[in-house]
């Protein structure tokens, strides 16, 4: 498996937007909140090529990950995989790498997951604990673990 993380460019916006929409659409539809224009606007506001990596498998873009490491805790802002790439361990692999970096830096990692999304189960399986709730999101954090 040839998995690569490549820096995002401004020109990746449309590709990454389409991927994010494919990943989020089922969860948003279940909440009655899917709106393609709103999805575009939200992604435009949040898109930071400097913090975003394209996830590529065998030369095809299958996801994106965005982490804000500028403060403690780090914010895992986005981790989206194309539905065709979900369930085969790629997300777990990437999250374990991030958590290992956080443990080395001794920082907590925070993430929000859309209420009702499978992402909630995914983050809990990786040691994240719920710390709050918003109208649409559940807030999690995973404290760093001391390395021995």
TrEMBL record:
The keyword Transferase applies. SUPFAM superfamilies: Acyl-CoA N-acyltransferases (Nat). Residues 3-148 form the N-acetyltransferase domain. Coiled coil: none annotated. One of its GO terms (molecular function) is acyltransferase activity, transferring groups other than amino-acyl groups. PROSITE patterns: GNAT (PS51186). The keyword Transferase applies. Pfam families: Acetyltransf_7. Keywords: Transferase. This is GNAT family N-acetyltransferase. It comes from Leeia aquatica.
